[in-house]
Amino acid sequence: MSEIKIANKTIGEYSKSFVIAEAGVNHNGSIEMAKKLVNAAKEAGADAVKFQTFKTKNLVTKNAEKAEYQIKNSGEESQYEMIKRLELSDSEFEEIAKYAGDKGIIFLSSPFDTESVDLLDEMNIPAFKIASGEITNFPLLKHIAKKHRPVILSTGMSTIGEVEEALNLIEKYNDDIVLMHCLTNYPAKKEDANLKVIKTLEYAFKRPVGFSDHTSGIEMSVAAVAMGSCVIEKHFTIDKNLPGPDHKASLEPQELSEMVKAIRNVEKGLGNGIKKPTNDEIKIKKLVRKSIVAEKDIPKGSILTEEMLTIKRPGTGIEPKYLDELVGRELVEDVKKDDLLKWNQLK
């Protein structure tokens, strides 16, 4: 599997998971709320905080329908009206990015049109995140790829063939790509999570793979890390009860913090894949393994039989796997009952 760098973070099989706190549009169009989200992401221990950059006029037609979850969470306004209300200006994004940098957290954003791509490129963003809905938007993918910055490509709603097509296009200009398994539903059902797709994408494309988690709770994100996910992206909000399309399906700051802690704890247990005893196990091994022991007093010159021997703790003598090699050997000194046999006692 290849590795890529985003800012000062390495993303790959043997690196810690890159945790993206997805603020999205949960700022509700307020730069002050956006800054609160940056603060919450930093305090939770996330590596990056991510927003969504778009020009409503370039993104959606005025009569476009809303998704069911958007209708439920944002009332009767049209999709155009809803998105327009959530749009931030160029200068506001520049201010948020600077604020994130001052706070010591990586700023990322998903662009939804070429104008937004150019803005983020001018801001020297360390990577582009491509939302699932854009995976077949080849003009946008090409425009992003030609900026020669790392790309995080979300694959929600797509087939593996569509993922391959998008990759083939991006790879013509840029090879620093992370794939994200994703379910584009808010919230997504846990039974639809299909985390084994992470391994499918790794095997098929030999690239770092992450998980953009839209299920409720933190279990699926933590499980994805255990399966080798290199990146975790999770929506969060200051308050789930705020009005807006994504708040209800987002984590609150304390939950985000708990997710990051759980991920870091799981990573401690993943190790390097080499099967060998730990230093603590080496100490315990002597106590709980067994050795070949004299079943009774055995005088010097005796030819050992199986009946003269037994197997007991501790494991500091001859290992039981050598029992057949001891039978038939002559003792060169007396051995008392319960003594551990030693190789230098045998002829």
TrEMBL record:
Keywords per UniProt: Transferase
Residue stretches making up the AFP-like domain: 291-347
EC number assigned by the record: 2.5.1.56
Record GO terms (molecular function): N-acetylneuraminate synthase activity; N-acylneuraminate-9-phosphate synthase activity
SUPFAM superfamilies per UniProt: AFP III-like domain, Aldolase
Matches recorded under InterPro entries: AFP_Neu5c_C_sf, Aldolase_TIM, NeuB/NeuA, PseI-like, PseI/NeuA/B-like_N, SAF, SAF_AFP_Neu5Ac, SAF_PseI/NeuA/NeuB
Gene Ontology biological process terms in this record: carbohydrate biosynthetic process
Family annotation (PROSITE patterns): AFP_LIKE (PS50844)
Domain of life: Archaea
Pfam family of the protein (one): SAF
Name of the protein: N-acetylneuraminate synthase
Organism: Methanobacterium veterum
Organism lineage: Archaea, Methanobacteriati, Methanobacteriota, Methanomada group, Methanobacteria
Gene: neuB
